[in-house]
Specification:
mainly alpha; about 425 residues
């Protein structure tokens, strides 16, 4: 009885966490801009593999300019992309009538909080100089993504609250066009919110010689990213997400809302470094975790399907495995989750949680030992296993070998639990 109450309370907590409006808005916002990062990954891959195979010299430089332009329009303006999208989605989720205004104020507020004086190095120069009145990719790109997230959330919350004060609305009547009426309704909230953030930016600059973006990046983004996307933090959060599946709760409650945004930051930093020919900083990122710990979907269930086809004597389980195998190749495993089932199936608890852990640890160790390259391409989550490792690492065939090892070991890990599940199913049917 005690255990059931604990599970019930944990289930309620996880459900509330998954529906928390800010985490849900983050999940929706990153899903919206994800295609741009996938495009950036493909551009980086083509620039650094295909073009280098086919061209050289000035022809190579000219061709790679195509990929550079795509990187500039995606990775290098990451904070400018994420802040307005978060503003739009959060205000929409809060039921605000003018979400486009929230997107505008989020973007404008982010610009307000950026430094007006930056250090740049001119072409053919060895020393940097100070310049005013410009935005640099270093301040609006991957390094400032988390600042875009925080400022987008904060500016939207304040703006929606201020806009709800009726005394601050300017009502021009019903005789004017709706767009004009909406703009006047948010005029005073725009002025107040922008002025408040500009005042904060001026105080930080004049009194402390810093800016909010730098503070967020140094004091929030980097400590949080280091803690959650290190090996231990990643395994803990991802395993907790997979455990939720056994309670019937989608693992995106943990993965998509908490872990994935930080993994995306790691991925964008990797892609930017790869495009610039610099050392790749992060092993664990949004391409690495699915490639090593999500083969076939959550729980690496492609291993379960193979194990079932190899050793299961239960025709129902084999039927589900055959039906789910093709979707599983593309990492779509809802037929397994609810058909095998995984949900509330205690027999699958250990392998469903531990197989992804095994894959991530093996992939991490292989990368640390320089057996395989780090993931530098943001690939679609539906990319099949083996191909995903090759593409994510920028064409390293050794990553395919590592994935193959993980698939074999994962299948072996699932086999005894498949047999155990057969026995449980047989006894259950006999008792009925």
């Amino acid at each position: 009885m005690g255990n059931s109450k604990i599970i019930e309370k944990f289930t309620m907590f996880a459900s509330k966490l998954g529906n928390e409006i800010h985490l849900r808005s983050l999940r929706d916002a990153f899903a919206t801009i994800m295609p741009l990062y996938i495009l950036a990954g493909l551009a980086v891959l083509i620039n650094n593999t295909v073009f280098q195979w086919l061209l050289s010299g000035d022809a190579l430089t000219s061709a790679q300019y195509w990929g550079t332009l795509i990187v500039n329009g995606t990775l290098n303006i990451s904070s400018l992309l994420v802040a307005p999208v978060i503003g739009y989605v959060l205000s929409q989720n809060k039921g605000y009538e003018n979400p486009l205004a929230a997107a505008v104020i989020s973007l404008a507020t982010l610009i307000v909080m950026l430094p007006n004086r930056v250090s740049i190095t001119p072409l053919d120069a060895t020393e940097s100089v100070l310049a005013e009145g410009m935005l640099t990719f270093s301040n609006i790109g991957t390094g400032a993504m988390f600042a875009g997230v925080i400022i987008g959330l904060l500016a939207t919350e304040i703006f929606v609250w201020v806009s709800s004060i009726k005394r601050l609305k300017i009502n021009l009547g019903d005789s004017i066009p709706p767009a004009v009426g909406k703009s006047f309704n948010v005029l005073i909230p725009f002025i107040l919110v922008m002025s408040m953030f500009a005042l904060a930016g001026a105080v930080l600059h004049n009194a402390f010689h810093t800016d909010l973006v730098q503070i967020i990046t140094t004091l929030i983004q980097e400590p949080l990213r280091t803690a959650t996307t290190g090996l231990g933090g990643c395994l803990l959060l991802y395993s907790l997400g997979n455990f939720l599946w056994l309670l019937g709760i989608h693992q995106s409650v943990i993965y998509s809302s908490i872990l994935e945004p930080l993994l995306i930051v790691n991925m964008t930093l990797n892609m930017a470094a790869y495009a610039a020919g610099e050392a790749i900083p992060n092993i664990i990122n949004v391409a690495f975790v699915p490639a090593m710990g999500m083969m076939g979907g959550s729980g690496s269930t492609i291993c379960l399907l193979v194990a079932t086809l190899l050793v299961s004597k239960n025709q129902a389980s084999k039927g589900v495995a055959k039906m789910a195998f093709v979707p599983g190749i593309f990492n779509i495993n809802e037929p397994v989750i609810f058909g095998y089932p995984i949900v509330y199936n205690i027999c699958m608890l250990v392998p469903f949680v531990l197989t992804p852990v095994l894959g991530i640890v093996i992939g991490y160790a292989a990368t640390m030992m320089h057996f395989m390259e780090r993931c530098v391409v943001y690939i679609p989550w539906t990319t099949p296993p083996l191909l995903s490792g090759y593409l994510a690492t920028g064409g390293d065939w050794r990553a395919v070998l590592v994935q193959a090892v993980v698939l074999v070991l994962g299948t072996i890990l699932y086999i005894p639990f498949v047999k155990m599940n057969d026995i449980v199913v047989e006894k259950t049917m006999a008792s009925e």
